[in-house]
């Protein structure tokens, strides 16, 4: 009998692992607790809006090579769309100033010397001072390395790092901020073109992955929550799903691609992040005015980014723990008044049909103390590997990190 590699969890890390293993000719079985795949990156039918939406707006950048590779393998790379250049429109709600940050294509950052391309109110020297953030100490926070104040910070560095880390930048891990900046902004505009799943996360990432797996004969067991892993003689020997137990053959292997809280409950010996940060999304069922850019950065509001889809405007607020207990109606009203001002449409007092989605544990908190807890893919058990955005990918909790972690676990498990 050929060996089977069991993948627990069908989020992007688990799906990436399963796809890599399938490409390598392995026999794969996926076990997913929920009734659908995708985990924190999924689409669903929202009853309040009566439309298909994503659990949260997801922004990728053109440097996200693992995510793009994943889409290429499953034949969906045309579904992630973005402008040909790294242009980022911004609006400052306090001053009503509007500008477009234009990061030129190549590696030499001409844009910081160009008044029409950089952030208004900043000078080239302000950007050069940021260079020290590219190679920080391992345990430093962003606030240890740069002054988290001033026009450039308020209008660009702060919003960018908050979105990347989902953690207030002054306390955020400088090494993770540096990894993102090195791969994107410092690599030039062609590495940081914004990319969005225009038709939704499900149709872009998840459905094509499931199609690919089913065409290759991979079975996905939905509603199969792993309750316990039996370990004996240094290896996993059985998977307990409550109503069924899978005994592992001598050469069978396991990739555990579940969130950190679940992984720690199953394997109390491992180290894993235990502090999290929320993300709030507000969705408004309204067609944006023609010409509304796909993404707009908002300064001096509670709204941080507005994503424009053909049938809705959706807002992302990161590190949003302060908002998780705010009444939903109040949030919808305030956010809509900001959106109406930015896109210049509608009655600012009366939101169209809306939904507020709060993911309390959207990502692990990107703090130096949590970074130290992230484990590698390898465990002390010889047929068991870990995957997930929370493992030691060197990146914050992102689609790119999740997919890289799945690819890495697959490469180790297939050896
Ligand atoms: C609101 C929001 C906005 C975000 N925005 C962005 C963004 O703009 N850009 C970006 O790159 N990233 C973003 N992210 C992060 C991104 O979604 C995640 O990094 C990525 O989806 C994590 O994938 P994963 O496979 O590691 O984990 P998960 O998606 O959490 O997958 C784990 C899977 O394991 C399953 N599972 C749990 N327990 C068990 C069990 N006992 N047995 C079997 N299965 C189990 C779960 O049901 C789930 O399907 C955002 C996340 C959120 C929540």
Summarize the SSE layout with pairings:
Layout: E1 4-8, H1 12-23, E2 27-32, E3 43-46, E4 51-54, E5 59-61, H2 65-73, E6 80-81, E7 86-92, E8 97-103, H3 124-128, H4 142-145, H5 151-165, H6 174-183, E9 194-197, H7 201-215, E10 219-222, E11 228-232, E12 235-240, E13 245-247, E14 253-256, H8 260-266, E15 276-284, E16 295-299, E17 305-308, E18 313-317, H9 328-343, E19 354-364, H10 368-371, E20 384-386, H11 399-413
Helix pairs in contact: 1-7, 1-11, 2-11
The chain binds flavin-adenine dinucleotide.
Residues 8-14, 31-34, 39-41, 55-56, 58-60, 225-226, 257-259, 262, 279, 281, 359, 362-363, 388-389, 397-400, 402 line the site of flavin-adenine dinucleotide.
Question: What is this entry, summarized?
Answer:
By secondary structure, the protein is of the alpha/beta class. It has 11 helices and 20 strands.
What does this structure look like?
This protein is α/β, with parallel strands linked by helices and 415 residues long. It has helices at residues 12-23, 65-73, 124-128, 142-145, 151-165, 174-183, 201-215, 260-266, 328-343, 368-371, 399-413; strands spanning 4-8, 27-32, 43-46, 51-54, 59-61, 80-81, 86-92, 97-103, 194-197, 219-222, 228-232, 235-240, 245-247, 253-256, 276-284, 295-299, 305-308, 313-317, 354-364, 384-386. β7 (86-92) and β8 (97-103) form a beta hairpin. The radius of gyration is 22 Å and the shape is globular. The mean pLDDT is 97. The structure holds flavin-adenine dinucleotide. Residues 8-14, 31-34, 39-41, 55-56, 58-60, 225-226, 257-259, 262, 279, 281, 359, 362-363, 388-389, 397-400, 402 line the site of flavin-adenine dinucleotide. Flavin-adenine dinucleotide is lined by residues 8-14, 31-34, 39-41, 55-56, 58-60, 225-226, 257-259, 262, 279, 281, 359, 362-363, 388-389, 397-400, 402.
């Amino acid at each position: 009998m050929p060996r089977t590699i069991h993948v627990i969890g069908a989020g992007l890390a688990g799906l990436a692992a399963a796809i890599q293993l399938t490409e390598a000719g392995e026999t794969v079985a996926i076990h997913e607790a929920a009734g659908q795949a995708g985990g924190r990156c999924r689409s669903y039918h929202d009853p309040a809006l009566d439309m298909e939406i994503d659990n949260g707006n997801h922004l990728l950048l053109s440097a996200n090579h693992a995510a793009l590779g994943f889409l290429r393998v499953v034949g969906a790379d045309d579904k992630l769309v973005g402008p040909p250049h790294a242009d980022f429109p911004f609006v400052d709600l306090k001053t009503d100033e509007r500008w477009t940050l234009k990061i030129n294509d190549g590696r030499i950052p001409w844009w910081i010397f160009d008044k029409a391309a950089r952030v208004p109110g900043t000078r080239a020297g302000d950007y050069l001072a940021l260079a020290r953030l590219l190679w920080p100490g391992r345990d430093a926070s962003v606030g240890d390395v740069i002054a988290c104040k001033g026009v450039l910070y308020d209008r660009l560095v702060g919003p960018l790092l908050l979105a990347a880390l989902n953690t207030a930048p002054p306390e955020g891990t400088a090494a993770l901020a540096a990894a993102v900046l090195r791969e994107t902004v410092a690599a030039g505009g062609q590495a940081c073109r914004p990319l969005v799943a225009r038709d939704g996360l499900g149709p872009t990432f998840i459905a094509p992955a499931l199609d690919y797996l089913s065409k290759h004969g991979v079975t996905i067991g939905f509603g199969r929550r792993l309750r316990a892993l039996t370990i004996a003689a240094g290896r996993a020997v059985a998977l307990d799903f409550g109503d069924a137990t899978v005994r592992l053959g001598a050469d069978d292997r396991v990739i555990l691609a579940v969130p950190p809280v679940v992984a720690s409950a199953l394997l109390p010996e491992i180290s894993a992040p235990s502090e999290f940060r929320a993300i709030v999304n507000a969705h408004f069922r309204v067609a944006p005015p023609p010409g509304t850019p796909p993404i707009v950065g908002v300064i001096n509001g509670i709204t941080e980014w507005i994503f424009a889809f053909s049938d809705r405007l959706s807002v992302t607020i990161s590190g949003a723990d302060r908002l998780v207990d705010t009444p939903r109606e109040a949030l919808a009203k305030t956010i809509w008044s900001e959106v109406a001002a930015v896109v210049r449409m509608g009655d600012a007092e009366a939101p169209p049909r809306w939904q507020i989605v709060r993911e309390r544990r959207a990502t692990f908190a990107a703090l130096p103390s949590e970074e130290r807890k992230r484990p590698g893919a390898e465990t002390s058990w010889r047929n068991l590997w870990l995957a997930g955005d929370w493992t030691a990918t060197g990146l914050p909790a992102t689609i790119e990190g999740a997919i890289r972690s799945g690819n890495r676990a697959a490469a180790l498990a297939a050896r």
